[in-house]
From TrEMBL:
A molecular-function term among this protein's GO annotations: glucuronate isomerase activity
Keyword Nucleus: no
One BP annotation, GO: inositol catabolic process
Keyword Isomerase (UniProt): yes
A Pfam family: KduI
Protein keywords: Isomerase
Protein name per the record: 5-deoxy-glucuronate isomerase
InterPro entries for this protein: Deoxy-glucuronate_isom_IolB, KduI/IolB_isomerase, RmlC-like_jellyroll, RmlC_Cupin_sf
Amino acid sequence: MSTLLSKRTALDAQGRFQCITPESAGWEYVGFEAYSLDEGQSLSFIAGAEEEICLVLVGGHAEVTLNGKSLGKLGDRAEPFEKKKPYSLYITAGDIASLTTTSPLELAVCRAPGKGTFPSRVISPEDVGAEARGVGNNKRYVHNILPDTADADSLLVVEVYTDEGCTSSYPSHKHDTNAPPTETHLEETYYHRLNPSQGFCIQRVYTDNRELDECMAVYDGDVVMVPEGYHPVATIAGYDSYYLNVMAGPIRKWLFTWESGHEWVNSSIYADKHNG
């Protein structure tokens, strides 16, 4: 099995089934955890002195406090395939957030270095930008939870929906070289969900020289780590895909380079073929 694929595990005592740290991933910036919580469970998260956290309520509801002050009940969808925009909570360095679930809750915890530059805040659905990208068999729908235009020190967080039989994160692109304004170095995790849940999708991670070239069958609840290289996703007939991306690096800007051989899929040649 590829070392880039983190399989969903049995729940630990806190309800966690994914735990990726910079140390376990062999990189510097991105940490990711996923929880499946029962109604009535409580958890707290403290952002370290040099850390920031984004909690994404992937599905379900919870009563949330920030530094002991109630933020009320957050959550507006039971599961991600409702395709409603999510509620999230940005936690700046040194702050503490606690939640008590008021329904079953699927929670994603996104971590990266932080300096405490920006205050903690709720990211409501109204704060989340939505856009359709691509055409034909390369179309997907995106929720920009924490894009590079929003306040944060390091974190970039986005969720993507891809219908059965389509590709996404495609044409193949990479962001592993610090060469702004052309490209920035961003580590990335893909937290995958499939609908129906017994399905799978395919993700490939590869570099130009093919020293890294991994192709993985990814199941519901798995995480793919992208330390470098291109990283397209392909769905399988009968199964829709959702994934939550977490990115971070030395420069908080999403600048990437297309793989030249496939960039034509962005062009009118491909679009005309499917719109004609």
